[in-house]
Amino acid sequence: MIDAMxxxxxxxxxxxxxxxPGHLLLTSNLPLDPVARRTADWLHRWAEQAPQRVFLSERAxxxxxxxxxxxxxxHVRALAxxxxxxxxxxxxxxAILSGNSVDHALLSFAAQYAGVPTVxxxxxxxxxxxxxxRLVYVIEKVRPRLVxxxxxxxxxxxxxxxxxxxxxxxxxxxEGASRPVTPFAELLxxxxxxxxxxxxxxxxxxxxxxxxxxxxxxxxxxxxxxxxRMLCANQSQMASVLxxxxxxxxxxxxxxxxxxxxxxxxxxxxxLAHGGTLTIDNGKPTGTLFNxxxxxxxxxxxxxxxxVPVGFSMLxxxxxxxxxxxxxxxxxLDMIFYAGASLPQDVWTRLETMAMEVRGRIPLMISSWGMTxxxxxxxxxxEPIGRSGVIGVPLPGTEVKLIPDGDMRCELRVKGPxxxxxxxxxxxxxxxxxxxxxxxxxxxxxxxxSNDDPDRGLTxxxxxxxxxxxxxxxxxxxxxxxxxxxEGLRGLVQDVVVCGHDRDAIGLFIFPRPxxxxxxxxSDGAVIDAALQARIEARLRDMAAAxxxxxxxxxxxxxxxxxxxxxxxxxxxxGSLNVRKIIMRRAALLERLYDNEDPALIRV
Length: 604
Prior knowledge:
Largest sheet: 9 strands, antiparallel
CATH class of one domain: Alpha Beta
């Protein structure tokens, strides 16, 4: 059906909800599109059907480096031949240290073509010396046979680590290398002796395409085995409910990093599956790089826009006065997709208003739920809903198990062809990840938008795995309480950690905003600043007065002198806090949080 609001071919939500002993089971009533056997099948299809269409594009000086589908297939086969000639296969991964680039993409697809897993890593693991421990952890775990970095000089510090001894290093730019490097151009020459087609024939749905490491928000990162089946099925699942993707080749101008499943699997493969064009945005939604994003969108805007809420907020602010950006952004825009957090409703509304001003219709504005282990999309909005905060309904082929907790909230577990087979080299964690019926334990909680109408979808309701009990046996929904605390303490804090497991009350570790510290003194890791302590106490009293029950009432806090430590893994590569590491590393401060006589304590 053609939706009157968006002008796009869309499919309304249609869900079956069945009651089972102890849980609900949700499934989509919509059929699943045919699933490709491997990503190489998409590349061959579009190289044949649209050989001169641009697949990959990136800035090159003042111009652009464009790679067509025909060129991409030629490069991928040559690179695959070079990998085969080196004896690489399923047991010899390739680690990728650098960020998004055309060469990164070509090497990744060549590896998938030849059945060689890639391990894309966060750039900061290599570029920030304090984060090298994370890099060492991954390299020692996966033991790659080959390592790629776009610029050997820029990554020289990381490449000098002894963990890279005996591993072939490949780089696009070799100047300034700290050890011998193979030029990427040499790999592009291929190897005529390699049986490329014979190797491709061995690549199937169960072949591991990537090992994606989780951000480690509650423990050390885990390597998610990402198969060809997961990548291919996930694109078919989304195409089943977003049929307009098949009506014209999509385009994106995208910055989202490829070491994360959102940018690297969801977005990149959506372009390849539908013969689309991926323009690599070398900007980011940060103060120093956002101007580059603006320049790239004006030059090569997409038909789809993927971003995190802070990125959309920055775009809206810029488009208030930058009319060239507004015109370029909305001119051909079919869909706006946000993930990572809820989009502020005022940003949503302003995007709708601007779209109407430029194009006379509103793009489909949606979100979804997923994780690295689910490739990622499993639950998705696929009809116009007019509001933020809804994650949607199960995609075709997915089973969603909901386990009620007595408060209208449900623990979320999932099963489907897009779900991982397990974690790399970790059978114990793999076994823990699945329940007795084979459903992945996600650790997340959800609620129905309407208990009477499952077609209206689900909303995210925090992390069950972060919840804990007080001494009284009262459950504390720590994720939800953290968001409430951040809102209540807005302007005073950068972040907070909710504490209280097996204690008699809920407390907070507070990471303050530096501009709020005036004449502060440090006392063994805690801040004593009478003015800031008084302001926080007043805010916490207001919050406590509105709280219902001990499981929602924060009664104490302590301001931490030291910000989260990257080298001690208190910060994940996504920039979020590793709560478990923070509490373990600062155990002495946790005891002080519950010492009523401590001068640094803020008590409500």
